[in-house]
Amino acid sequence: MNLKNPIEPLTEKTDGLSRRDALKLMGISPIAASVLAGTSVTEAKASSDAKGKIVIVGGGAGGIMAMAHLRSSLSNPDITIIAPNETHLYQPGQIFIAAGVYEPDEIEMSNKNFIPDDVKWIKDEVKAFDPDNNSLTLRGGEELSYDYLVVATGLQYRYEWIEGLTKEDIGTHGISSVYLNDLEKGTHEGGELTWEWFNALKQAAKEGKKPRAIYTHPNTPIKCGGAPQKILYLSADYLKKDGLSAEFIFATSNASLFSLKNVDEELHRTQKGYEGMSTKFQHNLISIDVQKKIATFGHFYQEQGEWDPDFEMYETFDHYEKVDMEYDFIHIVPPMSAVDTVVDSSLSWQKGTAKGWLEVDNETLQHRRYKNVFGIGDICGIPMGKTGGSTRHHAPIVAANLISAMEGKELKEKFDGYTVCPLKVNYGEIIMAEFNYDGPASSVPFWKDVSVPRSVWWAFDVYMLKPMYQHLMMRGWM
């Protein structure tokens, strides 16, 4: 079967891939086998006679995976999914489109192949949540009640929070952003525009100039935290292969390149391997002059003062300044936030650093105040997990705990904080940074060091992960 074809309808056995055939296909790769060894891929069996109306809000990876796990775990499921998008995007593929590895249509799928006929599909969006009355209002005005709710709305991009920037500026005046897309319409301009940006940068370098390219990382939680650096390293390597270079500036709001010490150290070594590459730490893009090509950053830093003998420590002073940087090219990662319908509801955290995000328990993913509500994916206000890898781990936990709640039982399944960041340090090598709340968490037992760049991870990410996503993850089989 040509894996570029749309997947077959979600059934136990189809004219395309059955679960057994999909597992055999994955078994071709020893790396895939290692990853699968740490996941649940057993035959799905209805295990509960619990009854209740379940409403899932969102038709991205989280909503579809939650639906698939719940459907296979209930003997008589009553599931409604609210999702306006008929086209489903394999979002990790955006990076590969940007790097010229995938064609744009290779990340397009159809939600009708994931949502079976016995699940009610409402092609609309939620306008407002009313968890005190177990109901919600659709954009079209209809009110819908539920017994149990799964919130899988994802997050939203906030380009407008950067003064002077509009979405229409992306793709003009040396500006790109791989994140630019419309999930409802199934469009993915960001990857295509960034591939054009790669080639414009290369052309400028060929003309004997030393173009300055800036890559930003905002001061908000973001989908796939490694994406800003992936674009940095891949575009630099794209030039390097032709003996070209540029002035590459990574302007990040963070104080380090990565939260894990050994991965951070490896990324510093990676940067040294590219001529003209440097990082500006604690620099957050706040405004841009599109016509003049000037980016303005807010720079937060501390300065050491005099020694205090009473406390036996140096005094420190917080400083903030605005820093202007001229550029020829700039790749912008927008600030991100929870979607407005969650922010404006009582479902969101009302205070603290997670304010606005869905208020769920870090481990059970159950809402902390509304016990018949669960969250999955990027919308969750938990310390880690805005990646597809995290969502895959969320899904069976949400399904099992929701069913336990339906049965009046204790919620025993716990999310350990697993997340994964496949950092593409060049064309051909990836650091597969897997970790959880406790630290590194490699899925391959014989590769404990998650900081090592490996060519096999590149092959796995390019060739194996998408069919695994299509044929296993989205069906609730792993």
Strand order of the largest sheet: 5-2-1-9-20
Secondary structural class: alpha/beta
Output the CATH topology of the domain at 159-336: FAD/NAD(P)-binding domain
Query: What value does the average pLDDT take?
Result: 90
Terminal Cα span: 21 Å
CATH architecture of the domain at 159-336: 3-Layer(bba) Sandwich
Oligomer: single chain
What is the class of the domain at 159-336 in the CATH system? Alpha Beta
Largest sheet: 5 strands, parallel
State the helical fraction. 10-25%
Give the helix tally.
10
Strand fraction band? Answer: 25-35%
CA gyration radius, whole angstroms: 23 Å
Please provide the count of β strands: 24
Molecular structure report:
The chain has a five-stranded parallel sheet with strand order 5-2-1-9-20, with helices on one face. The chain has a five-stranded parallel sheet with strand order 11-18-12-13-14. Strands 21, 22, 23 and 24 form a four-stranded antiparallel sheet that branches. Among the domains are: 42-84 and 124-154 and 339-417, FAD/NAD(P)-binding domain, CATH 3.50.50.60; 159-336, FAD/NAD(P)-binding domain, CATH 3.50.50. The chain is globular, with a radius of gyration of 23 Å. The chain is built from ten helices and 24 strands. With 478 residues, it is an alpha/beta fold.
